[in-house]
Design brief:
Length: 198
Amino acid sequence: MGIFLAHLHQYNQQFTPPLGFVRPRFDEEGLLRTPIIPIESNWPVSQSDRAVLEAAGKKIRASMQYLSQEDDLFGLIHGDLHCANCKFYRGKIQVFDFDDSGWGYYLYDLAVTLYYLRHRSGYVVLRKVLLDSYQQIRSLPKQYESCLEALIAARRLHLLRDLLQRQDNPKLRALTPKYIQDSVTDMGKFLEIIADRR
């Protein structure tokens, strides 16, 4: 998966979009619209929980300031690469589901993959293998370690906001209360990690 993303990002640096080619942006504004819990959302979220989510959003934005939108760091990304969106056959990877493809930080593509691996046993090894394999093809920005956790957290908040905007789906609506609480817990841990690094 790391090698695939590196090749994709490498190719994108020479890709010229055709006229009328429009895709969403996964930058600060695309990932972290404020407030995190939309005003029109009618979910009862306590002030303290909102405060955690908004504080995390501010810290993520601060971390993202270290990333530039230069061609070597920003371009067309897959946006949703995890194990359910690829198949492996004879040692090769086939990737699909490009629905979330858009303009974003290349590092965010890696953060999305890590987001879905983070609760697996052996995560530390999986993370190292993903990043090492990527770096066989492309180098990572100098500040990637400080930004990667923030981008993983950004994925969580982006999915939360997306879920809150799709409440017409009964299955998604049923998942929402737990997802909000899990998001608050995750963002609390993220804030602790950031505080410990000071």
